[in-house]
Amino acid sequence: MTSTAPLPDAVPTNWVDRFAPAGLRPWLKLGRFDRPVGIWLLMLPGWQGIALAEAMEHRLPNPGLLAQMFLGAALMRAAGCAYNDIVDREIDAKVARTALRPIPAGQIGVGQAWIFLIACCLASFSILLTLPPTAVALGLASLVLVAAYPFMKRITWWPQAWLGLTFNWGALLGFSAATGAGPAFWRQIAPFVLSTGDVRFLMRAAADSALQWPAVLLYAAGVFWTLGYDTIYAIQDLEDDALAGVKSSARRLGQQAPLAILGFYLTSLALMLATGAAAGLGPLFYLLLIAYGIQLCLQVRRVRLDDPLQALRLFRSNTWAGLLLFVAIVMGTRLAILAHL
């Protein structure tokens, strides 16, 4: 059996339901390719980390590295969604928004979903291996966060905070990928190190790959950003989550959710101000950061606990917020780049 209609949280005109062959649709929906907003929200922190690292060296982001981050995010998001659906298949069957997903709907078996997951992970791992060693280590470490995420809604009222830790890991990975020594460097120094025992080059590579405070601040800002937008997303499922016994920040906060979301977003904004100061970004960064802050505040103003469709629209608007922040980082160093030409 194949899906004949868009899932409730997918755009009715999404490309999967319009153009993909019927037999392929369940697989694309398993990876959430009919809802690409998740790819953007996973990818953009990585782009921001790359842009920040390059900005600190007065350079524009490397297009090739941005492309790698996009492909890796798309594959790992698909793998993560498949894993989440495997773990949550019984809960998903009880929630209206998720009951028609491929696994609870009986379109894809659990064993098939595992094969899909492993294939996506292997493809993503092949991309990860082209990055510097610190980035590879960070990529592997992220699997701990990914593996634990589906269980958070069972043990804490704050699974959205765990998602923030997980989805923004790319900020650290992207930063280290842009600053660390790549495979070519290691191939060049390996014969020398093996023949002489001189470890100075290894120490230099480790220093080049080390994370710096601006990257950590960017990561923290992203965690609070995600905590805000995923609380908005959870508003869609308030009634169903209560019936299924699923915990969420939206349920925990109740009527105070809009005020709490404002607090999360303001904290994210403050941490981004600290990021810009620590990285030495210029005035264009702060001007665009104002626009980023306005976009977030408009979400808070429009959110309603009794309007799940509006919550979904506001959640999706965060792709623009994240893209605006990426542009702010890039433009924040633009004057410095011109000064060095």
CATH architecture: Orthogonal Bundle
Number of domains: 1
> Helix proportion of residues, in percent?
over 70%
Question: C-alpha Rg, in Å?
Answer: 21 Å
Low-pLDDT stretches? none
Largest sheet: none
Name of the top-level CATH class = Mainly Alpha
The count of DSSP E runs of length 2 or more, i.e. the number of strands, is 0
Choose one word for the global shape.
globular
Mean pLDDT score? 88
What name does CATH use for the topology? Tetracycline Repressor, domain 2
Which structural class fits the helix and strand makeup?
mainly alpha
Q: Which percent range describes the beta-strand content?
A: under 5%
How many helices? The count is 19
- Return the string of H and E elements: HHHHHHHHHHHHHHHHHHH
Query: Could you give me the name of the CATH homologous superfamily?
Result: UbiA prenyltransferase
What is the first-to-last residue Cα distance? 60 Å
Give me some keywords for this one.
single chain; mainly alpha; Tetracycline Repressor, domain 2; globular
Tell me briefly what this model is.
This protein is mainly alpha-helical.
Blueprint of the fold:
Elements: H1 15-19, H2 25-30, H3 37-55, H4 63-87, H5 89-92, H6 110-128, H7 133-155, H8 159-167, H9 169-179, H10 183-196, H11 200-209, H12 213-234, H13 238-244, H14 249-253, H15 257-279, H16 283-302, H17 308-316, H18 318-332, H19 334-340
